[in-house]
Amino acid sequence: MPDHRWLILTLEAPLVAFGGVTIDQMGVTRDFPAASMLTGLLANALGYARTDWQQHQHLQDRLLFAARWERENSSGLLTDTQNVRLEKNDKCWTTWGEPEGRTGDSYGGPHRRFRKYHMDAHVTVVLRLEPDSCVPDHDTLTACIDRPARPLFIGRKPCLPSGPLRRHESVLASSAYAALRQIPGQGRLRALWPLGEGPEAGENVQCHLDLPDIRNWRTGLHGGTRRVVEGFVHPEQGL
């Protein structure tokens, strides 16, 4: 199998959110970065506008990645509880650039929503775009991560990275799992990789999952799944 160039991202921050299927006011976070979340991060670095849905879709369709945890917080997830009292004539900002009004009655109780975060997280991602001959290519993506068009965040805007996202040079590897192993680390690390990009059975495989982390960028809704493997990786070199 030929070797590919893999871009390495370090996702480390006091708070991170990896996305997930949000139902009503419950904003969850996955254990590993979602394809849609990484697409948004890369698109932000490239300077895509939110309305450039074709470019977002093309980027997500080409994205191939794996991830591993370097440091996990044993305290579990943080829940941010947000409360606001909305009156009948109040308006809110929206992601489509226009204020949205209300037509209902005023409520005596607050409007509430909940957002989950990983605390003090450190996750390494290896990624590439397939095929690399299209625009953007590996070098363009690397340059944009080093000098992004806009400030970058990891999942949600409060999740500012604690350092540069690119702290390692790209590696050559035949698979996403092999690329993960090339990054120095300690011990047996929890990891996730696409089916066909690493072992599918054996002592380092925990389970196979159909992950619903694909977004339809035209409608803005999530739909469809991709097959991934969750398990463990042993780095070839220690820190």
Order of helical and strand elements: EEHHEEEHEHEEEEE
| N-to-C span | 28 Å
Shape descriptor reads: globular
The parts where pLDDT drops under 50 for at least 5 residues are: none
Write down the Rg. 19 Å
Largest sheet: 9 strands, mixed
Helix percent band: 10-25%
Structural class by sheet pairing and helices: alpha+beta
Total number of beta strands: 11
* Average pLDDT reading: 91
Number of helices: 4
* Percent strand: 25-35%
Please explain how this structure is put together.
The chain is α+β, with helices and mostly antiparallel strands and about 240 residues long. The protein is about 15% helix and about 35% strand. The protein contains 4 helices and 11 strands, in the order E-E-H-H-E-E-E-H-E-H-E-E-E-E-E. The strands form 2 sheets. Strands 1, 2, 3, 4, 5, 6, 7, 8 and 11 form a 9-stranded mixed β-sheet that branches. Strands 9-10 form a two-stranded antiparallel ribbon. Strand 9 and strand 10 form a beta hairpin. It is globular, with a radius of gyration of 19 Å. The mean pLDDT is about 90.
